[in-house]
Design a protein that fits this description.
about 220 residues; binds adenosine monophosphate
Length: about 220
């Protein structure tokens, strides 16, 4: 399957993407994770991306599209992929369509994770992530690690992302509404959008997403 995951920051895209990719046996491609890997390796791309990310803005399309394309062309993505955080505006969605058309393939679904604004701000401001693996996510109130600052899964150090401060989250939400939400209409015209309620226990959200994807698959 080829799936795009959209939703505001803090809706649980990363968490759900990891789980869904595992269940569906397809690679999880997160442009945010790819940028963060470039930042920690101090590449030129990382240096460029960091200034935009820290401010809560989108990294320019040209470099983002090139990076996503490069990742989608890796052998493990031949049979399908789950895109998390890409596309994030209409021109990226158009670039993705072009790429898919060239390859003679299509998206199967666009999963839209819905969550109320105040909830996502609370989720993000308290979020702590493991330095070893961004899939190990904790929260200072909702999902406390057994030992403060230490990952329960692997013992790694937990940190707060530079762009998870409350002020930056407000900017990211604004960017989401003005630039990313229009892609939902773009994909609605292609009949691809499946909306999922992203609140509630993580397992239930995953189950809702899998059930919705199965329905889509049966219908198409
Ligand atoms: P995420 O991990 O998906 O929340 O992304 C973190 C940050 O990386 C975003 O706030 C953007 O600054 C940048 N980013 C990730 N994906 C994209 C994209 N598709 N286009 C532009 N910037 C992106």
């Amino acid at each position: 399957m080829r799936i795009v995951l959209v939703g505001p920051p803090g809706a649980g895209k990363g968490t759900q993407a990891t789980r869904l990719a595992e269940k569906l046996n397809i690679p999880h491609i997160s442009t945010g994770d790819l940028f963060r890997a470039n930042i920690s390796q101090q590449t030129e791309l990382g240096k460029l991306a960091k200034s935009y990310m820290d401010a809560g803005n989108l990294v320019p399309d040209e470099v983002t599209i090139a990076m996503a394309k490069d990742r989608m062309e890796q052998p493990d993505a031949e049979g399908g992929f789950l895109l998390d955080g890409f596309p994030r505006n209409v021109s990226q969605a158009e670039a993705l369509d072009e790429l898919l058309t060239t390859e003679g393939i299509k998206l199967d679904a666009v999963l839209d994770l819905e969550a109320p604004e105040e909830e996502v701000v609370k989720r993000i401001a308290g979020r702590r992530i493991c330095r070893n693996d961004s899939a190990h996510v904790f929260h200072v109130t909702y999902k406390k690690p057994a030992k403060e600052g230490v990952c329960d899964v692997c013992g790694g150090e937990l940190y707060q992302r530079d762009d998870d401060s409350e002020a930056t989250v407000r900017t990211r939400l604004e960017v989401y509404h003005t630039q990313t939400e229009p892609i939902i209409d773009y994909y609605k015209t292609q009949g691809l959008v499946v909306t999922i309620e992203a609140m509630g226990p993580v397992d239930e959200v995953t189950a809702r997403a899998l059930a919705a994807l199965k329905r889509e698959g049966d219908e198409n």
